Amino acid sequence: MTFKKKILVLEENVQDKKILLDILDKDFLIFIATDIQNLQEIVDKQYDDFSAIILDINIQLDQKYDFLCTMNKNNQLSKIPVLVTSTTTDTHLEKRVLELGVQNYIIKPYKPEIFKLKLLNTITICESNEFSHMITYDSLTKLYTKEYFYKYAEKIIKENPSIEFDIICCDIMRFKLVNEFYGINEGNSLLCFVADMLRRDTKNRGYVAESTKIFLLY
Predict the structure, then answer these.
(1) What is the DSSP-derived secondary structure letter of residue 15?
(2) Is the peptide bond before 112 cis (omega within 30 degrees of 0)?
(3) Last residue in a domain, options 88, 111, 135
(4) Who's near 78: CB < 8 A, 6+ residues apart?
């Protein structure tokens, strides 16, 4: 069974909205926002549900700039690819929305096959980047994962045979007791504090990874 990806749409023009539905309805599940406030409410509550957002930006520019800015600054919301549609070829507008993290700027009228390909390509690229980030960085500390660290360290050492490297492995003593006495959240906060400290102290001089509460650097 093939599950359709969910697309959230805010299209102000009634005719263009109908065209979009005709283009996408066969391959995607389409959810329609009534206005920019409704769009924000849906995203806040269901951001994990959507593979992309299609945003018509012809009216209420300031509110839509604010929406894009909010998404761009939020670690979770910024993962949702946004395609902005417009009737104007204004390069200043295009530059502005791209600076706010928009993945694609599409000029109306819609060209069905081209639009669908742009949407699919945008989703595929963003999902690929997200997967790559997940296997490269620890979700809590944002340090390299153990597996990526080993692979990258091996690469660096092989490429620089004349350089001597130090690899240090350190542990947080009795870390289990922190979780038991103060709770998981405090334990996570401690890990993030140590990670930030190591990241700061090794900036431009080494690499740090995290695995099972053990930090490695070189």
Answers:
(1) H
(2) no
(3) 135
(4) 71, 72, 101
Q: Do 84 and 43 sit in the same domain of this protein? A: yes
Secondary structure class of 4 (helix, strand, coil):
coil
How far apart CA 15 and CA 83 sit, in angstroms, is: 18
DSSP 35: S
> Count of alpha carbons within 13 Å of 184, Cβ hemisphere only?
1
The pTM (predicted TM-score) of the whole model is 0.63
> What is the CATH classification number for the domain harbouring 149?
3.30.70.270
Q: How many structural domains compose the chain?
A: 2
Structural domain that includes position 187: 144-217
Distance (Å, rounded) from C-alpha 124 to C-alpha 100? 20
| 214-217, strands of its sheet edge to edge | 144-145, 208-211, 214-217, 168-171
pLDDT digits (tens, 9 = 90+) for 165-212: 888 777 888 888 888 899 988 988 988 888 888 888 777 666 666 665
CATH number assigned to the domain comprising residue 92: 3.40.50.2300
Cα separations in angstroms, 83 against 61, 118, 129, 199? 15, 9, 17, 35
Q: Which two tokens stand for residue 59?
A: 């009216």
- With CA atoms as reference, report the closest residue to 187 among 196, 197, 178, 195: 178
Same-domain check for residues 90 and 163 = no
Residues 6+ apart with CB under 8 A from 210: 138, 140, 141, 143, 144, 145, 146, 191, 195
